[in-house]
Each structure stands twice: as C-alpha cells, then as structure tokens.
C-alpha cells in the first residue's frame, strides 16, 4: 500500500539517536543514512518497500501535524513495551502507556509517544498473547 512514510525533524542527529534503537527493537534494518542530507531510512529485511524515512523537511522548518501519526507493527507485546520504554529513555514523551485498547479490537495492544520533535508515534501488536 505505501511506498514510504517520512517524518520531519529539526535536529537530525538527535532524531537519529532517538529512532535507531526503536527501529532495532522492531527488527527494521537501516537501508540508508546520509547525515549530510540529512535523512535516513529503515525497512524490513528482504523487502524494498515500505520505507520509514526520517529527515529534515525539504521546505522550511519542521512542524508536527495535529492528527497525524505513524504506527509500527510489533511482533509481540513485549516489543511494544520495550519500544515505549526506549522512547521515553531517549527524550520522548508519553502519549499513552502500553496496554490493551479493546475499543479498536480485542487484541489491540499499543503504546503511544511523541518524539523530541513532537511527531506522534504508535507501536502496536495485533496478535493475541
């Protein structure tokens, strides 16, 4: 469905340091990193698309959107908890602690946080425990 999803950052080195451990916990591989651009992208092993891209906006300053969010699928609930903890340890802010959200569906286990630039991120597992 998606070729790529890109989010902006006003401080690429800080953002890269924030996202790299989360991407590793999700078992996403670094496809490219070009700090001079600046941008970096991650994807699942063995797949060309989709790519999650982090970088400076091409036009003007970065402003996080209201109502916009990127959600990553996790293999299990422990990974959801780990990603949320990594985000908070790296300077992110809590936007919803790990837990069930049965109003979405019975096995929806998600966590929400904002990165240091204010972008809203979700990590979710849809599988039963």
List keywords for this structure.
alpha/beta; 4-stranded mixed β-sheet; globular; 36% strand; 2 helices; 129 residues
What does it look like?
With about 130 residues, the chain is of the alpha/beta class. It contains 2 helices and 8 strands; from the N terminus they run E-H-E-E-E-E-H-E-E-E. The chain has helices at about 10-25, 75-90; strands spanning about 5-10, 30-35, 40-45, 50-55, 70-75, 95-100, 110-115, 120-125. The strands form 2 sheets. Strands 1-4-3-2 form a 4-stranded mixed sheet, with helices on one face. It has a 4-stranded mixed sheet with strand order 5-8-7-6, covered by helices on one side. Strand 2 and strand 3 form a beta hairpin. Helix 1 runs antiparallel to helix 2 (about 75-90). The longest helix has 14 residues, at about 10-25. It is globular. The two termini are about 25 Å apart.
């Amino acid at each position: 469905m998606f070729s790529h999803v890109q989010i902006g950052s006003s401080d690429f080195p800080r953002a890269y340091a924030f996202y790299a451990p989360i991407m590793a916990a999700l078992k996403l591989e670094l496809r490219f990193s070009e700090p001079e651009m600046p941008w970096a992208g991650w994807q699942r092993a063995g797949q060309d698309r989709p790519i999650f891209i982090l970088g400076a906006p091409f036009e003007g300053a970065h402003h996080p959107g209201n109502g916009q969010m990127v959600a990553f699928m996790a293999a299990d609930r422990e990974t959801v908890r780990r990603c949320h903890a990594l985000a908070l340890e790296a300077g992110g802010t809590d936007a919803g602690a790990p837990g069930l959200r049965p109003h979405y569906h019975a096995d929806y286990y998600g966590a929400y946080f904002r990165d240091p630039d204010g972008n809203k991120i979700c990590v979710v597992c849809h599988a039963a425990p």
